[in-house]
Amino acid sequence: MKNLICCAFAHKDGFRTSMQTAKQAGRDTTEMYLKNIFVALVSAKLHNPSDDVCFVTNCELPGKWVERLEGQHIMIKTVPFTDFEVPRSFPWALAFYKLCALQAVVAQGEDYAHILLMDADTYTTRSYRELWEEADFGVLLFPVGHSFQHSDRETIRRDFQRYFPEAAKEKNIVHYGGEFVAGSPASLEKYLQFCRLVYDKVKTAGYQMEPHAGDETIWSIAAALAKDKLTVTEAGAYIYRFWTGDFYLVSTVTVSNPVCIWHIPNEKETGFLRIYQYYQKHSAFPAIQRCMKIFGMRKAKRPFNQYTFLNKLMGRMKAK
After folding, report:
1. With bands split at pLDDT 50, 70 and 90, how would you rate the model's confidence at 304?
2. CA distances from 73 to 40, 60, 108, 284 (A)
């Protein structure tokens, strides 16, 4: 059976987009996201040609974008944003659409062995073969790696204690990112039942969540509640979140233990647009090392300490 690879994007007038762009939803931001999604899904299809790729959205796309996406064998699925909604006051309100989109594709996923939903600001570099094999055992989620008292993880912990106080005494909460969720349709359906349980409690209580809570709160609390009934596996072997810009982080997972998906949140308005333009001009993506440079992922080098420098210098002088 085939596998299904998806990206989701929602638009609502007056709502904010990601915290990285700090903009409101509009024509320009939609165009930017469509270019990101083009790169994300075309690169995924390139390395997984036998799988289906799908763009899930609540928008009516301009004709030029329908033509561009379908010309790359990307299916377009329209799903209204009528579920898993939160008020506009939450900065990540539009990101909750991923839950709505996943629910829709899982409900019609009987033709697929596995389903992967990933963020728009992702770039695929390798086949998902091993990812699909591991997804046979349950749901794959990406743990961000925040410590117990990191502010982002603490935000999720407080909502866990607020809505599930008894469970919070017994179950540790892991901060799972919202950029990646994969599994068989059956496993994902079971996982979404826990997501629904969390969301319904939040909705009934009038959305009394932490002010900066996002979809990651739902994913993470649902995973904690599901631990006894569903296998949740760390997806860090397949995706990594690379920060560029002021908060600069590059990992060895590009070379010695390479992941197949790069998640690069700060490159929505820069690297992804350059990669998109390159593809439009050459009908191909740049070589992997050039991609790293375009995305601002400079190759890490071992620090050049003084002792090593002096020894090398002395050696060269003696050689002369």
Report:
1. very low
2. 13, 18, 19, 15
Burial class for 8, CB neighbours closer than 10 Å (0-12, 13-18, 19+): buried
The structure tokens 């990112």 sit at 177
CA-closest candidate to residue 142, choices 2, 227, 248, 259: 259
Identify the three-state secondary structure at position 263: strand
Mention every residue, 6+ apart, whose C-beta is less than 8 A from residue 66: 76
Contacts of 72 (CB under 8 A, 6+ apart): 38, 41, 42, 45
**Cα angle vertex 125, ends 50, 78, to 5°?**
55
Q: In residues, how long is the chain?
A: 320
CA atoms in the 13 A half-sphere facing the CB of 238? 22
pLDDT tens, residue by residue, 91-131: 899 999 999 999 999 999 899 999 999 999 999 999 999 99
- CB distance 97 to 218 below 8 Å: no
Spell out the alpha helix ranges (H) of the chain.
27-47, 63-71, 97-107, 129-134, 151-163, 165-170, 185-204, 215-226, 271-282, 288-294, 306-319
Per-residue pLDDT at 243 = 86
Q: Give me the torsion for CA of 10, 41, 280, 295, rounded to 10°.
A: 90
Closest-CA residue to 137 (of 184, 104, 180): 184
Residue 55 host element (H or E): strand 52-57
What does the DSSP assignment read for 185-237? HHHHHHHHHHHHHHHHHHHHTTS---TT--HHHHHHHHHHHHTTTS-EEE-TT
Tens digits of per-residue pLDDT, 7-49?
999 988 878 766 555 556 567 788 999 999 999 999 999 999 9
Inter-residue contact 140 to 235 (CB < 8 Å)? yes
Q: What sign does the dihedral 160-164-167-168 (CA atoms) show?
A: positive
Domains of the chain by start residue, with CATH: 2-319 (3.90.550.10)
